[in-house]
User: Fold this.
Amino acid sequence: MDNDLTILEKVLLMGLLPLLGGTTNLYQSLIIALSAIIISIIIKYIADTFTFEYDYKWYILFGLGITLSYIFYITIINIFPFFEMYTNIYLLLLGVTPLIYVGASSTEHHFFDYQKDFFILMIMVGAFREMLGLGTILGIQLTKPGYPPFGFVKDFPGAFLIVSVIYLIVEVTRRNKIKNNKQDEGSEKIV
Amino acid sequence: MKEVKKLSELQRLFLDSILSKNMSLAYFLGVLYMMVESKTIKETTIRGLKFVSTVFVINILGWLLNSILPAYYDPLNPAIFFITTLLGVIILKYWGELDGEWFGLPRYILIIGPLFGSQLLIQSGNFTYPKMMVVNSAYVLGSFILFVLIASIKEEILVSDASPVFKSYSTILAAIAMLALGIIGFQLI
Assistant:
């Protein structure tokens, strides 16, 4: 299960913090996902300027990550007061999320694939949790107020369940695609 | 008719914090599990004990330092937590648990997040000493139980006849969700 993890699985493990905490609704997911991606890009390009590979390189980057997450938190609250209700401690904790340091690794060459998968996952989890857990989408009421289809989805256990179901769907699609490709290759050989 | 005994405030806080509202676990499960996970349940149990005991001690130390200092030193909290976190890293390095890399990231960088973040979470709760101890104990106990359970579930999944697509992290996450829902059942008492 662990020897050959896909990028999606690594995103899931390293980015579980915002995936569970920062996805109560779609607005929050967008804010957290975009902030995380911008911080990751800044860290990647700063790490690229470092010409040394000592331990303290990571401590500097970690300090930078925490500082940037605080700056983002303060900036969003001050410039976009409307979004204050959608930001919480999860934005402050972006600095301790391993996923934002993935670009600083010299052995990892799929930085933008990680960001793409992370963004898609965040949006999907946020949208599903808002629709099922609150009965709304982007604040627009879809069901009778106070009667969401699956109220427990807005809480921590529901978040795990939604992440696992989305992951399962993606995994089934991916395996089917690989299977079909192999079948196509096989039929071409027969021809 | 026998009177139903209500749970006390601390008992309810303990039950809440053990899994369904275990913020430390919610935030850092992925990272902590990567650090603790081993080939056998026994190894996972031993490593899990080392990690959760370090988190437990560091959380108390961070809370004590934060409480001793006057309120106007609060902006220094991140610096205090960073120092206690480094102490935790030193302890775990001494135990030989932080050697090597995980897909390009040094393992000691992965553990900084849970150590730093769990102190921040406890501080953000503004707990009194008894409540802090209850929440801290519940956090680490919940994490430890879950590590061992995940290791057991994983072993079962790998040897089962299930389709390969179910032999993935999605099944583990679904199992955690079910466990958390079960714990919520206790809160109704």
